[in-house]
Amino acid sequence: MSDSSNPFASPQTDAVARPEVVWAAEQPEALRKVKLGLTLVYIGICGMLLCVAVLAPLLMFSLGASRIELVALLGLAVLVFSVVMLVGQIFCIAVPAESGARPFAISAVVLEVVCLLAMVLGTIATVVGMLATVGAIGQALANVGSVTCFLLFLRKVAQYIERPDIAARAMRALIVGVLSTIAIAVGAMGPFAPPTQGEFLGWLAILGMLGALVAFVMYANTVTYLRKAITV
Length: 232
Description:
InterPro entries: MFS_trans_sf. Keywords: Membrane, Transmembrane, Transmembrane helix. The chain is mainly α. The chain has 7 helices and no strands. The longest helix is centred in the C-terminal third of the chain and has 35 residues. The radius of gyration is 22 Å and the shape is globular. About 5% of the residues have low confidence.
């Protein structure tokens, strides 16, 4: 409060410093690590989207040996960008414990490692049909879990630095992602359903995949908004 007896006294405030300011002052290196981690995650997400936008359409219209080469290239690209995202998530573990976000970052890392292992083992075991299927399902579940945990991490960090708008973005991306995943899972039952229901389930699966793509874009936007909100 200002000193009313001295009109020339400098004004003072009782306001408490924002958590982000305290974080930057007390743990600047940790702040830089988290920002770098978010940057790497963003690069990984954009790389994944680029793979879907460029390689997936080519894969649909390719035949023979060229198709096999594209599948291998797509798999390699996904693996590389997944590793980039994993490294970024590891950097994000440096977030302050008091933010409540660290457990979500650790969970995301663990699930991402499981996803990568399932991807590699599934590729090796393609000769064994059932094992490959189990690996693909495990990879999908781990990937969904990792993204979910990291979105919750983003929400917690956004709340910690007092950016409710970014926290809301994270929740919207999570909701769209969950609904899309449910639609894909239900739609996958199409081949086992009667013809009339199978057609509906097929369209539901397509809708779910489009929703998942939208959720992934929302995920990327949330990451970059939070990255820009963290000032070092």
